[in-house]
Known about the structure:
Elements: H1 3-6, H2 43-47, H3 68-97, H4 102-108, H5 122-127, H6 137-162, H7 172-200, H8 208-232, H9 234-240, H10 253-274, H11 283-286, H12 291-302, H13 305-316, H14 319-334, H15 339-344, H16 349-364, H17 370-397, H18 405-436, H19 442-468, H20 487-494, E1 503-505, H21 511-516, E2 524-526
Antiparallel strand pairs: 1-2
Helix pairs in contact: 3-7, 3-8, 3-14, 4-7, 4-19, 6-7, 6-10, 13-19, 14-17, 14-19, 16-18, 17-18, 18-19
Main location: endoplasmic reticulum
InterPro entries: AcetylCoA_trans_1-like, AmpG_permease/AT-1, MFS_trans_sf
GO molecular function, one term: acetyl-CoA transmembrane transporter activity
Amino acid sequence: MSPAIAAKEGGRQRRxxxxxxxLDVRSEVPPALALCGDxxxxxxxxxxxxxxxETPTVRGPRGCRAELGSVLLLLALYVLQGIPLGLAxxxxxxxxxxxxxxxxxxxxxxxxxxxxxxLLWAPLVDAVYLRRFGRRKSWLVPTQYVLGLFxxxxxxxxxxxxxxxxxxxxxxxxxxxxxxxxxxxxxTQDIAVDGWALxxxxxxxxxxxxxxNSVGQTAGYFLGNVLFLALESASFCNKYLRFQPQPRGIVxxxxxxxxxxxxxxxxxxxxxxxxxxxxxxxxxxxxxKGITDTYKLLFSIIKMPAVFTFCLLILTAKVGFxxxxxxxxxxxxxxxxxxxxxxxxxxxMVPLQIILPLIISKYTxxxxxxxxxxxxxxFRLLLGxxxxxxxxxxxxxxxEGGFPIYYYVVVLLSYALHQISLYSMYVAIMAxxxxxxxxxxxxxxxxxxxxxxxxxxxxxxxxxxxxxxxLTVKECSGxxxxxxxxALEAELTSSPKISTxxxxxxxxxxxxxxxxxxxxxxxxxxxxxxxx
Length: 532
């Protein structure tokens, strides 16, 4: 579906909470699911502690209210984490509305890769820190400061990068590099927050960390994607939020970036000054493997024949429906569906995304969780055909006022069915990964499998987007020998200002024609106005 919805599928997968270390990755679905795993937190470390004195001081369990401040801080940090993810998911829709090619969309899709590749630098974040300042704050504070400053600077440049008012199209290469760095910083912040979440709360309340993750990231993604696209749309604001129509939305991407950049700086300053890390943890409980040992362990796991075969399976399993998932939403925008309407489809899906894992987990809790994966795959492949029909049907129901209500009902039902098949496969894979992971190295083992699963969703989507333009044949209306091979030609031939009986000539005949000419490969497209 649309990147506003389906882009959440490509980048974030949460490993079960563990005290081994903070190598966490997220996966193809929104953070409405947090799994439990790895056994009791700190169990092995507790067993290695020396015996207590004869008259120990017994501290009773701490309730959630006693750590309400820490819970709210975690929630705020995860909300901030979701903002860059939501903004990155909204950019493909903005690019599509500006007639970016699918090759350019494919290039921009690399932005979603850092969350799938965190495993490459997570051991570094876990092992290198300033002891006085705090293990997690050593990475969290500078990373969030850089994110805030980066967002403020980007707010001054984003209009130029998107091509607004400059008479040129978006600079996709610069946008990709910029947002890739943006997501890299967000992924690094995610590693630090996930690690701190396990030690910020007491053992009795550590389960609230996954709740903060789920609620916070979902809220942040909603703010950065759905809310932004709605407030950025002039048509949405004029229809629902204004009494007098205006040519622009209530906010722009530049305004949005500046506001959240300031929020990042203020929040980070407060955390650096007032929040202290838990000093009561024993060194054994906080100890992690060295960087070299972690990478050696990962390599030894990959060399295992069964693991290698399974990795090949999940790296290629999503090829069959990657095109439908990655391209459908962009094609709908291309056919005239407002991008903010597609983004708002994510709202009624939130309850479904919360309930589905609870239902599906009953079927994946047995000895063969992959059976659910196999059974869901044919239905997801068939939904790809249904999405193709939806794209074909879209221009046929379009009218001057937009699209009828029943069209959006069909799109919403299609997306709901897509979510059921997607979550069935996702929960099954997560259950299988948890079942086969060696408990002695569960964190590293689970993280490796989740990383490979993430990559199995990212690379097919990128390739599918890259192949759309070469495999698409276009023909100009009224000029059958012309291919309309680029976005500008396609826009001109579909514009209502241009006659349906268009003529393409190899050069401009006189100055009158030059007044109305759009230069496309040294050709002049004659509109009906020229013949008045």
